[in-house]
DNA sequence: TATTAAATGCAAATGATTTGCATTTGAAAT
DNA sequence: ATTTCAAATGCAAATCATTTGCATTTAATA
């Protein structure tokens, strides 16, 4: 059984508002990381509405609590996804921008090692792999 | 013997201008990936000057020819470095923003595998590892 | 040296994200 | 249930990196 929207918001220690619920719901049903604007329109499509600023504020808050993962893409827009086990990586299609999650982290083992070798305290990493997805290959 | 500025520009197939030379020179002597603004000021410090737009145009051009590697960081500014062997990764200090290059690619072996498993044609990847550098640890 | 497409500088435009502030709202206390 | 008030929201304006249009300059070739 997955986490409910309320479970997720409860962790934040903040007001459980209509806007925030809407944002979380969209993120939960998303198959890909979404931009703030994606979320804004998805909420609208559901019949309700959130201000774009509120979407940003909610995402920032959630990121600061490690509830969402912010992915900064080359196109100048950030995408967000609910955090699963700390982090997750994606295979991103450079043609259609769809992305599929990779179910493991290729760095897990190396990270500690690389940190030690350079005397860094490692706090995290970002990884994205780019390519052409099956669908776009056909076209 | 390293490549000269002219060697690098020759590959582009474009005019060899004062501005472009200046940008390449700065990139060559840089120890870290630099932002467009960093480059702009570094050129100024040398006594010459380039317009910021020109810096961006030069970087875009070079990126399109795979002569520089554009790194999109979480702080909203892109950094650029001369390409070495296709790509290179960094350990980035989240406190002072200094970065040290990692002398190998942790993904080399896995990439092909991941691509096959997902039926993607892999074209590249971006990886950055974050942490606190030795110097900042002390403070 | 003359010619001309390519490159530059400048100022204005863009687009994602952030912010200030007046208003509204959720939740704790009554 | 009502009061209370910090927290959250909406809105419009501000920011900031990057891009673009256009008039002017320049490198490369004849």
Task: Please summarize what this structure is.
Two copies of one chain form a homodimer. By secondary structure, the first copy, chain A, is an alpha+beta fold. Chain A has six helices and six strands, in the order H-H-E-H-H-E-E-E-E-H-E-H.
Series of secondary-structure elements of chain A, N-terminal to C-terminal: HHEHHEEEEHEH
The profile of the biggest β sheet of chain A is: 3 strands, antiparallel
Query: How many DSSP E strands of chain A?
Result: 6
Count the DSSP helices of chain A. 6
Radius of gyration of chain A: 17 Å
Give the overall form of chain A.
globular
Q: Strands across the major sheet of chain A, in which order?
A: 1-3-2
Strand proportion of chain A: 15-25%
The unreliable regions of chain A are none
Structure description:
2 copies of one chain form a homodimer. Chain A is of the alpha+beta class and 139 residues long. Chain A has helices at residues 5-10, 18-29, 36-45, 52-64, 108-118, 134-138, and strands spanning 34-35, 68-72, 78-82, 89-93, 99-102, 121-132. Chain A has a 3-stranded antiparallel beta sheet. In chain A, a hairpin with a 5-residue loop joins strand 4 (89-93) and strand 5. Chain A binds chain B through residues 70, 72-74, 91, 93-94, 100, 102, 106-107, 110-111, 114-115, 118-134, 137, and chain B through 70, 72-74, 91, 93-94, 100, 102, 106-107, 110-111, 114-115, 118-134, 137. Strand 6 of chain A pairs antiparallel with strand 5 of chain B, so a sheet runs across the interface. Chain A binds a DNA duplex (30 and 30 nucleotides) through residues 14-20, 35-37, 50-54, 56-58, 60, 76-78.
